[in-house]
Write a structure and sequence with these properties.
The complex is a heterodimer of chains A (364) and B (349).
Chain A: E1 4-8, E2 13-19, E3 26-32, E4 41-49, E5 53-62, E6 66-71, E7 78-83, E8 87-92, E9 101-104, E10 110-115, E11 123-127, E12 131-135, E13 144-147, E14 152-157, E15 164-169, E16 173-178, E17 189-194, E18 225-230, E19 237-242, E20 246-251, E21 261-264, E22 270-275, E23 282-287, E24 292-296, E25 315-316, E26 318-323, E27 330-335, E28 343-348, E29 352-357, H1 359-362
Parallel strand pairs in A: 21-25
Antiparallel strand pairs in A: 1-29, 2-3, 3-4, 4-5, 6-7, 7-8, 8-9, 10-11, 11-12, 12-13, 14-15, 15-16, 16-17, 18-19, 19-20, 20-21, 22-23, 23-24, 24-26, 27-28, 28-29
Chain B: H1 11-20, H2 25-31, H3 52-62, H4 74-78, H5 83-86, H6 92-99, H7 106-109, H8 111-123, H9 125-148, H10 160-166, H11 172-180, H12 190-237, H13 241-277, H14 283-286, H15 289-298, E1 302-304, E2 309-311, E3 339-340
Antiparallel strand pairs in B: 1-2
Helix pairs in contact in B: 9-10, 9-11, 13-15
Classes of the chains: A mainly beta (364), B mainly alpha (349).
Subcellular location (chain A): Cytoplasm, Cytosol; Peroxisome matrix
GO molecular function (chain A): peroxisome matrix targeting signal-2 binding
InterPro entries (chain A): PEX7, WD40/YVTN_repeat-like_dom_sf, WD40_repeat_dom_sf, WD40_rpt
Chain lengths: 364, 349
């Protein structure tokens, strides 16, 4: 059996886990009591290392559930938490109990938070109130509000461009906001990607586009997108997954071009996904089917004979491994930036944090 | 964007520059000054050579100060007089020494504006404060309180002006000192002034204490009267006790209905979740604490209280015991493998 480090979050059901960008042995978990339906939240900061494997180094309580967290990129001791009351709270490991800043403008649950990894001076939050807000850690009021219009489960800064913000929403669309554009009627919205649409038919072809395994791909019905992430090596590639159990990758330069890859296998909705920081075609996903799976997006696979000259083929991703230890919904997963690559932390509603090496799955 | 930033110029733009020039009195006074084009600063100009606008301004500065007239509160507030309360009234020689520094051009280089500034700031200040501030304040306050403070306001007694001035504001100390010294000269020794100020302060404190006692008693009496009148009015015109009780019942019913509706919505959502996973025969799903809780919610056995799940019948808090693989008997096969490759796992090169 593969070695798995384990920690518990007693009384709180985790929603998100993130490795520190500063320390390879520190990670944080945002958790909520009563599965986030009612009650308060707790932020756990965990340390890895001997003698006990993982231990809780610190925790912070909030009056409402916690749904996401982001480590500060500019201060190794600070992290922001998205709360059920719509507030974003900034905690400092050097300050006990209370947050050092509270950012409260969202009218409904704040569901994701992401720190700008390049300029490091701002972070964004998305909410069920249908907005994305840009914040500075030193100002209690938001710097800018980007309207989305539907429940926005996930918002991310591009890791390649500090002005590019993407979000995934319940209307089955991925939106891109470019802050370099003037504020027009679209409020910096530059790209709208319908995640459910198939690629447009090629001229002269009949029938739906084909997957690389030869089956037709007619697209799917619109469904809520719960998570998305930018590829760390290609600045135009992002992946999204959600209620339709499928992960798709898109090229933002061709928003109407349909998915580049389709990755199927999860038996329930995909709750969280993350591209590997160490390989351009590997991603990991956590799902309501209680599994965490490692995938190859299929771009490196040779096309079958006969399809190589044919354009418009959608790659099919393959499952490379499955972590099946969670006994409740798996809700969060993150890659460790340090070391040989492959160390992964996952959390689930079974009140457990599991740290494991994805390589042990890949070797099987 | 400014026009000057938009590419090459043309004749029309030059004409626009002429017509746009500020022709107000303020600009005229500086632009038309004799030294304006000679490279000199307006600070170093000779007042004897000033033009008509400058002369008029000098006359205005040197003329009688408007707030010297009693019964005018507004000039006190907006005119130049309050300035000397805020400017530190240092000794003239210190101020002059500070002004006579290389950074400011020095007294030797700019004798006129420095002496003018000193005269305006230092010589005129204390006299104005001592002779005019207190009466002006007193008359101003007496003139305004009937409209400003409205109902329930009691006019000040004979000690009112002093009492008001004694009130701890930023202006209190200099004005009270000045008021106390109103009958004496402003060149009195500082020690005497302080002693006299202490005496006056204690006297003011006494007066204030008397005023507070009277005022508080009066306020309490008025409050009691008002409450009595209010109760009387409510007895005559207000809702009856039955109506109040009925309203309270309605509110409670409404809250109860809202709570029931919320419980019903939650039960329906739980039922939806259960129906979504019903066809999924998996050991973990069958033993899931969350799904068991959803089943109890769907069956209306468990409802949401303010901060937790409670039993619908007993009202006791429901303890959620999360089951996991580490519990004995969780797995049907104790040695089952949990971490596995996928069905179609592809080894990574």
């Amino acid at each position: 059996m593969a070695s798995v480090l384990e920690a518990r979050t007693p009384g709180f059901n985790p929603y998100a886990v993130k490795y520190s960008p500063y320390y390879d042995s520190r990670l944080a978990v945002a958790a909520s009591s009563n599965y986030g339906i009612v009650g308060n939240g707790r932020l756990f900061v965990l340390g890895l290392g001997p003698p006990n494997g993982i231990q809780i180094e610190k925790y912070f309580d909030t009056n409402d559930a916690q749904y996401d967290l982001a480590w500060s990129e500019i201060n190794e001791n600070q992290l922001a938490v998205a709360c059920g009351d719509g507030s974003i709270k900034l905690f400092d490991l050097g300050v006990d109990q209370f947050p050092v800043m509270n950012f409260h403008e969202h009218n409904r649950e704040a569901f994701s938070v992401c720190w700008n990894p390049i300029t490091k001076d701002t972070f964004i939050s998305s909410s069920w109130d249908g907005t994305i807000k840009i914040w500075s850690p030193t100002r209690p009021q938001s710097l800018k509000t980007l309207p989305v219009g539907t429940c926005t489960y996930s918002a991310q800064f591009s890791p390649h461009n500090p002005s590019l913000i993407s979000c995934a929403s319940s209307d089955s669309h991925i939106r891109l906001f470019d802050l370099r554009t003037p504020v027009t009627a679209k409020y910096h919205l530059t790209t709208l990607i319908p995640a459910h649409s198939p690629p447009p038919p090629l001229p002269g072809s009949h029938g739906p586009p084909l997957l690389s395994n030869g089956t037709p791909y007619p697209g799917s019905v619109p469904s809520e997108i719960l998570t998305h992430d930018w590829n760390k090596y290609s600045d135009t590639l992002l992946a999204a997954g959600g209620v339709d159990r499928t992960i798709r990758t898109f090229d933002i330069r061709n928003p109407q071009g349909g998915p580049l890859s389709v990755i199927s296998g999860h038996e329930f909705a995909v709750r969280k996904l993350a591209w590997s920081p160490h390989a351009r075609d590997i991603l990991v996903s956590a799902s309501y089917d209680m599994t965490v799976r490692v995938w190859n997006d299929g771009t490196g696979m040779p096309l079958p004979p006969g399809m190589q000259q044919q354009g418009g083929v959608v790659n099919v991703g393959t499952e490379m491994g499955r972590m099946n230890r969670h006994t409740e919904f798996a809700t969060g997963v993150d890659w460790c930036l340090f070391g040989a690559g492959g160390w992964t932390a996952s959390v689930g509603w079974d009140e457990r944090v599991l740290v494991w090496d994805a390589h042990t799955l890949l070797r099987r | 964007m400014a026009d000057s930033m938009c590419g090459p110029s043309n004749g029309a733009k030059n004409l626009l520059a002429h017509t746009d020039r500020d022709r107000s009195m303020h600009q005229d006074r500086l632009i038309n000054a004799p030294q304006a084009n000679a490279g000199g600063s307006f600070r170093t100009r000779n007042p004897a050579q000033a033009n008509g606008a400058d002369a008029a301004f000098d006359n205005f500065q040197g003329g009688p100060v408007p707030f010297m007239e009693p019964h005018h509160m507004l000039p006190m507030a907006s005119g130049p007089a309050p300035l000397h309360h805020h400017v530190p009234l240092g000794h003239p020689s210190i101020a002059a020494a500070r002004l006579d520094s290389p950074a400011t051009g020095g007294m030797r280089h700019a004798p006129d504006w420095v002496s003018e500034f000193s005269a305006m700031q230092l010589n005129g200040g204390p006299n104005m404060a001592s002779s005019a501030s207190a009466p002006a304040l007193a008359s101003g306050i007496q003139g305004m309180h009937p409209t400003t403070f409205g109902m329930g306001w009691r006019p000040f007694g004979p000690a009112a002006p002093q009492s008001f001035i004694q009130h701890p504001t930023s202006m209190a100390a200099p004005i009270s000192a000045a008021a106390a010294a109103a009958s004496s000269t402003t060149t009195a020794e500082p020690v005497a002034l302080v002693a006299e100020s202490a005496e006056v302060k204690s006297a003011f404190d006494d007066l204030f204490g008397q005023y507070d006692a009277v005022n508080e008693a009066e306020y309490a009496r008025q409050t009691a009267d008002f409450e009595a009148e209010e109760a009387k009015w409510m007895m005559e015109h207000g809702p009856s006790a039955e109506a109040i009780a009925q309203e309270a019942t309605e509110i409670a019913d409404e809250q109860d209905l809202s709570k029931k509706r919320m419980d019903h919505d939650l039960a329906r959502a739980a039922g939806d979740i259960l129906s979504a996973v019903s066809g999924y025969q998996n050991e973990k799903f069958q033993k899931s604490s969350f799904l068991q809780l959803m089943q109890r919610i769907a069956d209306h056995e468990v409802v949401v209280d303010e901060k937790s799940f409670v039993d619908a019948e007993t009202g006791g808090e429901v303890q959620i015991q999360v089951l996991d693989e580490s519990r004995p008997g969780y797995h049907s096969e104790e040695n089952g493998e949990h971490v596995s490759g996928g069905d179609d796992a592809v080894p990574r090169a």
